[in-house]
Predict the structure.
Amino acid sequence: MTLTQRFATTCIHAGQHPDPYSGAIMTPVYFTSTYIQEGLNQHRGFEYARTRNPTRDAVEGNLAALEGADFGIAFASGLAATQAILELLSSGDHLVLGDNVYGGTFRLVDRIMTRFGLTYTQVDTSDLAALRGAIQANTKLVMLETPTNPMLGLTDIAAVRSLLGEMGTAALLAVDNTFATPFNQRPLELGADLVFHSTTKYLNGHSDSIGGVAVTNSADLSERLHFIQNAAGAILSPMESWLILRGTKTLHLRMERHNANALEIARWLEARTDLKAVYYPGLESHPQHDLGKRQMQGFSGIVSFDTGDAQRTRRMASAFKIFALAESLGGVESLICHPVSMTHGSVPEADRARLGITDSLLRLSVGVEDVHDLLEDLERALKA
Ligand SMILES: *Cc1c(COP(=O)(O)O)cnc(C)c1O
């Protein structure tokens, strides 16, 4: 890009060009499986739609630009993007994985990738000494999330980069930026080699599609991921590509409101005397608030809190009128989740206890509604 665009402009324009046929300002959904070739070996760069699709090209360019990356590779889901990154590794390689990563990421590594000779160590990546101890001679990838789900713990991405440099390891650093979004945090600028997302969450933002993306500044990694995308075939469909393009046009506006609503709700919850704990990196009481301020421009829309009373939490879960009881997060509408019985049921009880995922914990995905209505809804549920 020759123009240095600011974030909001990038959201709306990056990766997209008016349709050359009609001048249509919006990128069409190219529902096609193949492309006519003028002669043998004569085509316009499009041969078969698993390999390339113009709508997918546009969303890949858009999502890459949002993270300040040169290359984007889009997949059928966040987990398909994660798997493609794991497929950069080979049998005999070792992976270091954050100890509080998305449950599906853990399941993919533990139940599938290990069957192909990959070994892994889980570690609290916010603890640099522990991370140092987990790196082996054959470690090829460090994969982490910050903030984590649902405890909102942070990892210092720049410090992890320095540690890997200092140790002289060839391990790549891949950061799942789904929770923060590039509006709030850009891991490539902090030294990550790869950033990946479940676009299902904030990037699409409207709870109406499943998708994933990996972005990088490395031409070599981009080429290898494009090869995997085409060879393994877990591609993002043209319709989903279009929906995400529609979503990112308002990413900056939505994130501003998610950030503001969540901060107000976290402060309101913290001021109450009947709760055991409130977890939100934007609160001064968060143990890593200073790191959050250095590494993030805002703290996103996820707030967790612990009532300390499992019975009360269970009563609350079904007492909301606006917050909907549902898995997932990052949409315009507010959701409530009980991690123990919904998203984290498969995490062994000892691990849950160590991480602080108790029976009395609730996780809010704060939407972009009027915050007063959300506070009234919380008040009502807390009284239930
Ligand atoms: C949802 C999620 C994923 C998985 O994405 P899907 O689109 O559901 O496959 C990965 N990481 C995080 C942090 C998520 O929230």
About this structure: The CA atoms of residues 193 and 380 lie 45 Å apart.
